[in-house]
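Q: How would the structure tokens look for this protein?
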Amino acid sequence: MSHAEIDLPGEWEDPSQPAPRRRRRGWLIALLLIGALIAGLGVVIGGYLLSLRGEYEKRSTVSIARTASDGERPADLGSGTNYLLLGSDKRDPETAAREQTFGQRSDVMMLVHVPADGSDIYVLSFPRDLYVDIPGHGKDRINAALAFGGVPLTVATVENYLGAPIAHAALIDFDGIKGLVDALGGVDVEVPLTFEGDGIEFTEGIQHMDGETALTFVRQRYMFADGDFQRNRNQQALLKAILNSFISRDTLSDPMKIREAIGQVSPFLTTDDGLTALTMAQLGVSLRDVRSENIRFMAVPHGEPFTTTGGASVVGTDEEGMDVLRRALAEDAMGAYYSQYAGAY
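A: Here is the predicted structure in token form.
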């Protein structure tokens, strides 16, 4: 979307007005885990809660403390809470804690904003090739921050770009998908288009997938005209299906299924060390009335793809559009922002 097409308001428009048609956004697997815990921890008590906590503690943890080169963390204005959710297709659970996920690039990156009133939740996707400043490394694709400095540098990069603090962060590898999908008994995925990958036929429309099929589905890209963009859409379609399955009555009424699912995904999960089981439980209680229809998906403002002088293909930024988003985050006014800009990017 060009700058000329953006209507930058002096004041927020009435959020009660009908929202423009919005682009369907998918579900990052880390959001799935958090959503699952929100749903699960809000309805379980006692010994089962302790058991669930034990499964969650199989994850790896890292500190997201800043270094001198990262600069000062943006001020917390006390309005709403931001979470950074990352997905990667190359993570070794045995070395994740030691290496702090250095050397990878995040395939998926989303900001989750939870308003102070705990109403609707806003999820904003970042293009993986967005060309931004990475502290200590100059301009590069935003997904390179994970390779340069792990989750801590990725958090600092996003905070600097948004001008807003990140309270917690989570990263999951896609290898956690297989066991998770199987633990749920398979999931029904809305396949965006027909294609064949690794000997498996995927047909446009609803298709039931087991874990192996799901993993194949989200890893394909070379047969698509737009490569990674279609792969991202496929990943989003699968993750949406997983979340819908996770918060279904059949799953929430089956404590052992929740426990098994979390146990399957936790070894492939890294969070900041502050995102404890207790923190998750508190979040679950505060958001106990939130349902899938209360989660609003958007993309952060961005420019057009271009090639750098060094020959890299990247996605440009949109500073005017970002200023509007930064203001909405600072003022905890994402409802008004969503009513005007949903589907704009």
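The first strand starts at residue 60 and ends at 62.

The two ends are 6 Å apart (CA to CA).

Upvote if useful.
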